[in-house]
Design brief:
The chain is mainly α and 161 residues long. It has 4 helices and 2 strands. α1 packs antiparallel against α4.
Length: 161
C-alpha cells in the first residue's frame, strides 16, 4: 500500500477533483431521474383529473338536456291544448280591426311599422287572434325553460372541480 503522504500534491488534487466531479455527476443523474419520474407522475395525474372532469361534465350535460327536452315537451303540450280549447270556450262573435293586428305585430316584433302599408291587411277574428297570442306565449314559456336549463347547466358545470 502506498502511504497517502508519499503521493504528490498534484495527484491528490487530481484525485479529489475526479472524486468531486464523479459525485456531482451521480447527483445530477439521480436528481434528473427523480425529477423526470415525478414530472411524469404529475402529467399522468393531471390527465386522469382531466378525464374525470370531462366525464362529470358529460353527465351534467346529458342530465340537463334530458330535463330540458322533457320540460319543453310539457310546455308544447300545454300550448297545443290551450290552442285546441280556444274555439270551444271563445265564441267568434266579433272581429278585430286591421289596426289591432298592426299593433299586435308591432308588439311582437318590437318595432313600429309603416301604418299605411300594414293597415290594408284586413280584419282578424277573436279566435285567430287568441290562437296567435297563445302560440306566442307558448314560445315565451319554451324560451324561459331554455334559459333555466342553461343557467342550471352553467351552475353545475362551474361546481365541477
Amino acid at each position: 500500500m502506498i502511504p497517502l503522504l508519499a503521493v504528490p500534491l498534484a495527484a491528490k488534487i487530481a484525485i479529489a477533483t475526479t472524486l468531486v466531479i464523479a459525485l456531482f455527476s451521480a447527483g445530477l443523474y439521480v436528481g434528473n431521474r427523480l425529477g423526470i419520474s415525478s414530472c411524469q407522475e404529475a402529467v399522468i395525474e393531471a390527465q386522469a383529473h382531466s378525464i374525470e372532469t370531462g366525464i362529470k361534465q358529460a353527465v351534467v350535460s346529458d342530465k340537463t338536456v334530458t330535463e330540458y327536452v322533457d320540460r319543453v315537451q310539457i310546455m308544447q303540450g300545454k300550448s297545443r291544448t290551450i290552442i285546441k280549447e280556444i274555439p270551444i270556450y271563445v265564441k267568434d262573435t266579433c272581429t278585430l280591426s286591421a289596426d289591432w293586428r298592426l299593433w299586435h305585430n308591432n308588439a311582437v316584433y318590437n318595432a313600429v311599422s309603416d301604418t299605411t302599408r300594414d293597415s290594408d291587411e284586413g280584419t282578424v277574428t277573436a279566435t285567430d287572434a287568441l290562437e296567435t297570442v297563445a302560440a306566442n306565449y307558448g314560445i315565451c314559456h319554451e324560451n324561459s325553460q331554455t334559459l333555466q336549463a342553461l343557467q342550471s347547466w352553467v351552475r353545475e358545470q362551474s361546481s365541477i372541480r
